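3.2 Worked example (two chains)
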Amino acid sequence: MAKMLFVFLLASVVIVSGCTLPGQQVLYENDIVIIRDLQAVPSTITPQQSVRVIATVQNKGNKPIDNVFVDLFDHCEGLFPKNQISNVNCGGGDAVTGTQCSIKLEAQETKQVSWQLKPKEDIKLKTICPQDGMKVSVKYPETTTSITTVSFISRAEQDRQLQAGTLAPVDSYIAAGEGPIKPFLSVEDSQPIPTDSGSTPVSLQVKNLGGGFLADNTEIVIEKIDFGDLQIDGSVQCHEVMKGADKLVPLIQKESSKFFCSIIPPQTETQTTRTITTEISYIYEFRSSVKVTVEPKF
């Protein structure tokens, strides 16, 4: 258990793509759709000039993504009125509102979305607004799947290996697929688990390992927990999630609480391994900003 906890802490710091970490854990790409670059051209203008804000949006994943929404959501309305935003280029996508575009990104594809803005002409003083830069967001739907192995052993095989001095502990192999928010299903007992042990606890926890956050007013939905031929013992939280009674998972400080349930070991004459597959879906948001300075000429 302590070893697995160490792996989780390490995974939250190191961002890897398809890399095996200690404890047999593999993490695929975290951030999938990102704002790779955000520029204001030119970044300093007079009240009589216009500026073009250009967002370079990239799909780092291995599958196409529809309904990617790119929005210049904070452009300082008091300085750059919305009715003076023009020549919105949605990179081949559709304009949804005056500042929002809907685009499709193929696997590994990069597109540019841009907006032309003109400030009020009566600006008398050097002004940077917003002070921390014009803000662009990208929101996209994502589904992330993980697989966890569980090892079981019969009592007779366990005794045989003990006598031979070959019994060794086994760690679960956990592979968490593409996506910034990943489900981690962990076995809480030492493995291999004796098949006559009655039941063994497992836990499900969801972690945000990306550079953004869950989009506002959306939820993480557990689409499935596939235990294969393993039987669930009792009717506790994880069991209820699997049955669909409570599929919504809130995040607090980038991780969910743990959902627990118990599984009943299968019968085997020697040793056997099973897999548990978990799939979640959500809408993720990634942001960036760039500063624009309006400087009157005197």
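3.2.1 Second chain
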Amino acid sequence: MITPGKWTEEQKIEVLRSSIGNVLINLKIIANNQLAYQLGLITEEEKQHLLKAAEVALNMMKRGKEKGVFK
């Protein structure tokens, strides 16, 4: 068993890949949520920023796959 703080490089990469995937999903959900927009929790400008951030996360995932870092 691996002790806390003693992660392998493979585990660190998997956490990074998983985190990028999760943020991509969450940003898209929030940005495209009509209820959040109707309740005034997000403005149209903020929505565009979230969608741009989702695009950045997607690009990170693509680059990681191209470089063979992510499966």
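3.3 Remarks
The chain has three helices and no strands.
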